[in-house]
Amino acid sequence: GNMYSEGNGVRRDPGEAFRWYMKAAEQGCAAAEINLGRMYEDGDGVSVSFAKAVKWYRKAADQDNAEAMYSLGVMYNDEGWTEHDYAEAAKWFRAAAEEGVMEAQYNLANMYRDARGVEKDYKESAKWFLAAAEQGYDEAQNWMGVIYQFGEGVELNCAKAAKWYLKAAAQGNVLAEYNLGYLCKTGKGVKQDYAEAFKWYEKAAAQGDSQSMKNIGWLYEEGKGVAQDFRKALKWYRKGASLGNAAAENGLAGMYRDGKGVPKDLKKAVEWYRKAAAHGNRNAAKELELLEKGI
User: Fold this and answer.
1) pLDDT at position 295
2) Structure pTM?
3) Which of 111, 141, 210, 236 is placed for a possible disulfide with 216 were both Cys, Cβ 3.0 to 4.6 Å?
């Protein structure tokens, strides 16, 4: 079944893979039952049927297969499925989490955080984020940083937040890179270091993070951690604004208003303040009101 499914040594043939998986599954092979579940879930060689996918995942889960338990959690957590059930998802994520499946631990943590299928419980959420983080799951490590930064289910500790952000950022997690940049910029939990903030914002910006682009623009505008350069500030504000970031739009408007790195242009300033205000930036709304009044 695996050889036909993956095309190893034979031409890939999902139908033939399905036939052999079925033979193995009928003899109680949990791995084959999981593969049948995946085929029905993905529509690989058979018509999509979430009900049949669940049926085969359940058979494997009944044999204490943690992978199948996790797959059931994913199925029931899918809002696109008419039978989705958060409580059932939480039940299966917990079963898999207790078997050490880090993705299940991470998803269960999010369910406790968001009160989906279980009552909101920040302490329980932190417990499961930690379990996944200790296995090296970068998204869980970033959440551990958030938890310590804001004291959600744990005692607030920005130094510990920085430690977890660094672990996730070392794996290229873009949110952790931004969050670490923020701590370095503000001096929360670490020594204030604008050059270090710039380093992490630059890494996050390279992955398309618009808020980091805005912050790089601010660092260049103010000359913090880098040599002051209005043209580079303008460039980074523009990058963030092109992605619809309201703070970057506000920064870009200010550059046009003050003629920094570009000829002064109040018409363009108003244009960008309007965009930023429409995206919820309060400072832009105030500046727009002043410009429109001619102050």
Assistant:
1) 54
2) 0.90
3) 236
